[in-house]
Structure formats: C-alpha cells, structure tokens
Design goal:
Its main location: cytoplasm. InterPro entries: aa-tRNA-synth_II, aa-tRNA-synth_II/BPL/LPL, Phe-tRNA-synth_IIc_asu, Phe-tRNA_ligase_II_N, Phe_tRNA_ligase_alpha1_bac, Phenylalanyl-tRNA_Synthase, tRNA-bd_arm. Belongs to the class-II aminoacyl-tRNA synthetase family. Phe-tRNA synthetase alpha subunit type 1 subfamily. It comes from Fervidobacterium thailandense. Pfam families: Phe_tRNA-synt_N, tRNA-synt_2d. With 326 residues, the protein is an alpha+beta fold. It folds into 2 domains: 89 residues; 215 residues, 2-Layer Sandwich (BirA Bifunctional Protein, domain 2), CATH 3.30.930. The chain is 42% helix and 20% strand. The chain is built from 11 helices and 9 strands. The strands form 2 sheets. The chain has a 7-stranded mixed β-sheet. A two-stranded antiparallel ribbon has the order 2-3. It is rod-shaped and about 140 Å long. Bound molecules: adenosine-5'-[phenylalaninyl-phosphate] (FA5). Adenosine-5'-[phenylalaninyl-phosphate] (FA5) binds next to strand 5, strand 8, strand 9 and helix 10.
Length: 326
Amino acid sequence: MTEELSRILEEAREEIAKVSTSRELNDVRVKYLGKAGTVTSLMKRLKDLPPEERPNWGRMVNELKDEIERILEEKKAEIARLEKEELNRKLWADPTMPGTRRSLGHLHILTKVQEELEDIFISMGFSIVEGPEIEEPWYNFDALNTPEWHPARDLHDSFYINEKYLLRTHTSPVQIRTMLSRKPPLAIISPGRVYRRDYDATHLPMFTQMEGLYVDHDVTVRHLKYFLEEFARRLLGENTKVRLRPSYFPFTEPSFEVDIYFNNRWFEVLGAGMVHPNVFKNVGYDPERWRGLAFGLGIERIAMVKYGIKDIRDLIRNDVRFLENW
Ligand code: FA5
C-alpha cells in the first residue's frame, strides 16, 4: 500500500473508533465507501494511470476498501451490542423498587363502633362473653320472665327455625347462659347478631346488639346511669347527655328506654333496667342477696348517632362509596 493509502486507512480507523451511534457510523461509511466517497475517487484515478500500473493500484485500493469495510463491520457489531445493553438497562425491572400500591380497605364502620364500645366497657372492668345466634325459646324468652302473651314470642315478630329453635331476638339470653355457668359477682358485655321481622329506615331484620350485665350485692339504678353516661361521653364526647325514660321489659324492674342527645336531637339507642327477681330465681341466684343491672344497646343505632347516618340500611348495602367515608 502506498503511503497515501496507509494514511487514509489510519484516518478512517481513527474516525471509526470515535463513533458511538449507528447513524454516525453510517456517515463515516458514506464518506469513505459511498458513491462520492474517498475510495471511489481513488478508483477513478485508474483511468489516468499507465496500463501496467493499473492492476497494482486497483488491488491496493480494493485492499483499502476491504480493510475499511472490516473495521466498519467490527464497529457495527460493537455498537449493536452497546445499543442492546442500553435498551435492556431501560427495560430492566428493578425488583427492589416499591410496587404498585393496592388499597387495603379498612374495617367496616360497625366493626369499628363495636370495638370502640368493647374497649370502653373492658376499661370499666367488663369482660366479653358470646352466645349462640340459634337459640332455644327457653333462654330467649322463658328464663327472661317473658310471658306467653309477649309480642316478641309471636311468629310474626321472630324467625323460628322449628319448634325447638329460633334466631335470637336479642342478646339477653347470653345473660341467662352466663349466670347459669358462673357465680356472682360478674360484669360482662356480649356483642352479637340478633334477628327480628323488622325492616325500615331505622330497623333491620339482622342487627347487632351489645348486652351488658353487672351483678353484685348493692348495685342500683345510679350505677346503671353511671355506666351509660360514661360510655356515651367516652364514645361521643364530654357534653353528651343521656336520658332514661320509664319503660317495660319483662326481665327488668324498673325498666328504661335510654336516649342519647347528640347533634341537637334525641336518639333511642338502648333498653335497660334492674334485673327482675324472677330472672335471678330462674338461674339459681338468690334475689335477696344479689342485685343486677342490665342493658342492651343497638350498635347500628349508635353508629347512626355518631356518624350522622340517616338510613340504617346504608350500613348493610355494602356500597363502597358510602363505606369509604369512614
Ligand atoms: C331489647 O332488645 C332488650 N333485650 C334490651 C334490654 C337488655 C333491656 C337488658 C333491659 C335489660 P329493644 O327491643 O328495645 O330491647 O332493643 C334494644 C335496642 O336495639 C334498641 O334500643 C335499638 O337501639 C336496637 N334495635 C331494636 N330493634 C332494632 C332493629 N330492627 N334494627 C336495628 N336496631 C334495633
């Protein structure tokens, strides 16, 4: 190869070495091997050479061309490898990156209210007891001094499974089961589902009650009022007022409907009273020695008061747009 051709080869080598993209590489190719490129113009010199020098010149220019082509191919392969690596780097999934966050949801508003109530009563010394939802009439009615003529016993008001069993209409049978299995004194709450043939904006066919029972030697209505005011204030705020209205339950004497004043109105949320002596007799407690207070509150009603819910049925419709507000 002549000195001139060697210099051109060196120049091409250097230029190709500097290139880092396919586009730049193509520019270099055109410059050296294109129609108007260096190698072509070198070939064109053939016709001006004496015939005996032409083969030699042609061979040397072809060698130059082959060599430049070889270097270009090498570089092309290198660039392709680099570009693939770069693409892989961009597409690479980093397993240490935080994933897409899925919303976890939260407890149902009724569960929250129930747990809040449980915490309040537990802090006042009550313990939690549960009872069956499928109940025998004796526990649901008879033992609770509820006479045959009482409307709750009617088929129109309660769900009977057969003659021996019904879905409990309140949590009060848990009082009976607890007193039969434990000796006084005792302080229990019993949350759970209860069933009645009811359905409107303030009544559900399946709802949740929480029974409270406190039996000791000198329990009075003042204790009852204390527990009710205390739970209402802790749940709804210091200024919450509680009202006891005289009422009737076969298993308590005296009996009360208890209302809570919140957001400028009264809400009926629970029934309560002093355990009737006949109930104590039915479970083998001596009514001369023991006094008891009891109450049964509706958890849905309390949730309605606390969160300003107008229609009780919204609580069980399972509409996420409603439930996610709390
Ligand atoms: C009773 O069920 C009595 N066992 C309560 C009781 C216990 C009294 C211990 C004395 C001693 P009552 O039927 O009033 O009482 O129901 C109690 C509460 O349950 C009501 O104040 C109300 O908050 C709620 N409640 C009653 N029926 C429904 C219903 N269909 N849907 C939602 N809540 C209801």
